[in-house]
Amino acid sequence: MFIGFVSRRFDLLPGQPGPEPIRLRTLILLRWVAIAGQSAAVAAALMIGAHLRLGPIVLVIGLAVVLNVVLMLSPARRISAIESAWQLGFDLAQIAALLSLTGGLTNPFALLLLAPVTVAATALPDRQLAALGAATFIMVSMAAYFARPLTFSAGPIATLNEPVLVGSWFAIIIGALFFAFYARTVAAEITATSDALFAARMALEREQKLQHLGGVVAAAAHELGTPLATIKLVSSELASEVATTLPDRKDLAEDLALLRQSAERCGNILKSMGSAGRDDLLIRSAPLGQVVEEAALPHRNRGIRIRVEMPPGAPSIQRDAALIHGFRNLIQNAVDFAAEEVLIEASFDKREIRLRVADDGPGFPAALLPKIGDPFLTTRPRAEDGRSYEGLGLGLFIAKALLERSGARMKFGNRQRGAQVSVIWPRQMIEANERGALGKNPEITA
Questions:
Q1: HEC string of the chain?
Q2: Entry pTM
Q3: What's the pLDDT tens digit per position in 187-211?
Q4: Residue 122 needs a FRET pair 20 to 30 A away by CA distance; which of 35, 189, 323, 427 works?
Q5: Which of 16-20, 81-85, 93-97 comes out lowest in average pLDDT?
Q6: Architecture, CATH, for domain 283-430
């Protein structure tokens, strides 16, 4: 029904297993509720003077208890729609047997025959629902045909109408509680399933954007090599000519030096991108402080003080190129916006490793905080030399995608002065095993 519609609507990968029609633990829990209700109904019937064959009744209720215990002791697993239908069919037969022993359809609790088919209508495919509906018709007919009359003790315990009235009261109360509990449980499962599928779809869309962007970056890196080499050559020749012909024009010399420095920085970025995928068995792990320093090093000479606060005893972590590049983007963004200083603060405990990057700039605009990390979102005010320029708005998107891929969760916010970004990893996902084997070294075939 609705769950089936959701699973078909968000079928993300071909051939993947479909979602459970209803969870096994939900069936077990509903059966315990039914067992408790049946036991309460039997006790109530005895209290108002009903004559019951307790042996067969206890046996029928005991079968449901045994089934639940066996299911609880078995290993956790997913169940199919067919198995769910069989279990609901057992519940239907068990209720029908109890009704046939306690007056048949004249028993006020006959309305509980609707419980299994209600569960099926909200959770099972059409074929299993039709089968259970037919079984309900058969069980209702058999409960009416094989019913044993329900008699009551004469005397002051109850008159003829009072047992029926009290039984109807108990039936309505127990039925209302059961159906309300079941509806609440199914609604919670539907919400959880919808949220999980929505999160998976968003993660897949972000991964697709990142893969597409990776192809564009690779093509750009390939094409930019020759133009950058030309810029460096021409800027060097112009600097020599300016020094010879215009020695008094220091402003031109500074501009040319900045141009050459930017071209060299672009070249270094392309080189680091080209070497990011190489496998180096000796430096797969490094102390946390060293990884932070490696990420901050390209921005040390940009006129902004970068202060690193690293507590003693910091663990070693996996030295992943994507992780370093993502954290470097966070530092670059902080340096671009900082007035004087960028603070990198590390902390850790037995469960988590945390890094915080904070600057003393204007901070994130409050209106954009919920959208931080989306692609092509930028409010960059200036370049490294203080001049205005227009960015692409991909830095934080790339950083967020790469760091979340490594298992981190990120928090963006503002402090009293400036912005701050917190990166938090579960310790077991990023901590390096320093005593583990490195593995085989790659063969040199040249």
A1: CHHHHHHHHCCCCCCCCCCCCCCHHHHHHHHHHHHHHHHHHHHHHHHCCEECCHHHHHHHHHHHHHHHHHHHHCCCCCCCHHHHHHHHHHHHHHHHHHHHHCCHHHCHHHHHHHHHHHHHHHHCCHHHHHHHHHHHHHHHHHHHHCCCCCEECCCCCCCCHHHHHHHHHHHHHHHHHHHHHHHHHHHHHHHHHHHHHHHHHHHHHHHHHHHHHHHHHHHHHHHHHHHHHHHHHHHHHHHHHHHHHCCCCHHHHHHHHHHHHHHHHHHHHHHHHHHCCCCCHHHCEEEHHHHHHHHHHHHCCCCCEEEEECCCCCCEEECCHHHHHHHHHHHHHHHHHCCCEEEEEEEECCCEEEEEEEECCCCCCHHHHHHCCCCCCCCCCCCCCCCCCCCCCCHHHHHHHHHHHCCCEEEEEECCCCEEEEEEEEHHHHECCCCCCCCCCCCCCC
A2: 0.44
A3: 676 677 667 667 667 666 666 665 6
A4: 35
A5: 16-20
A6: 2-Layer Sandwich (3.30)
